[in-house]
Amino acid sequence: MDSEKPRVLTKLYNSFRRRPVFISKIRRLHLLILKHNISYLIKEGFDKVYLLDIWRITERVIGESDLFEDYLSKIVFGVGDPLIILSPAENLSRYRNELAQARSLYTDTGGATIRSYGFYPVITIHSGLRPGTYIMKCSDGEVLIFRLDEHNKIHDLEVSKKYSEALKILSEAFEIYGLYKQSDAVKILMRELGLDRVEAQKIIKDLYEQGLIRLDKGGYIVINHLSLDVHSH
């Protein structure tokens, strides 16, 4: 529920206690997680937080966006402790000394360089199949889905065991039937889960709203392969 702290945020704040790396091609998410990362470090007692931003995306955003307005006097662009690095993976080898002392790393792809510097946990975030939804995969195997509202607030998207089972059935159906459309998906769920048409249609609709499935231009079902590992309740 929105009144409770989202599981995604709990996962992020737990990761800040170690030396996490956040891998994503979505700059909006990098900046949002960075805000929480800075907040955590300030609450831990640091007067300043140092940013080494190879992308050069934060200086403009921090000055123009209210996302960081509470921390403007705390952010220093340069190298110090605590240090957070934001960099494309292809440039990381140039900053070995800085990586060795960094407390967090934000980058776009994984690789041996990241592992060699002892960053853990590794948290990878991908776009869901519906705009505004995202799938977060953690190195401990947990996968969570969430959405961002217009105020950059994180909301967990719950996946029940029934919905998780429905995703698995729809995925396996590709091996049996090949490509299939929404009407076929409804029939498959009705048959495999013993649902009536209204229940099956609701599951399809909800999976679409959560960004776990979508329809392509031909009307065929597409499933995000990461959704098969989503944490269910």
Reconstruct the topology from this structure.
Elements: H1 7-16, E1 21-23, H2 27-43, E2 49-53, H3 58-64, E3 75-77, E4 83-86, H4 96-101, E5 104-107, H5 112-116, E6 122-127, E7 133-138, E8 143-148, E9 154-156, H6 161-177, H7 182-193, H8 197-209, E10 213-215, E11 221-223
Parallel strand pairs: 1-5, 1-6, 2-3, 2-4, 4-5
Antiparallel strand pairs: 6-7, 7-8, 8-9, 10-11
Give the tags.
single chain, 233 residues, alpha/beta, Rossmann fold, Arc Repressor Mutant, subunit A, 2 domains, 9-stranded mixed beta sheet, two-stranded antiparallel ribbon, 37% helix, 20% strand, elongated
**In angstroms, what is the radius of gyration?**
20 Å
The DSSP helix count reads 8
Would you tell me which CATH topology of the largest domain applies?
A: Rossmann fold
Which range does the strand content fall in?
15-25%
Q: Biggest sheet: strands side by side, in what order?
A: 3-2-4-5-1-6-7-8-9
Distance between the termini: 13 Å
- Uncertain segments: none
Number of domains: 2
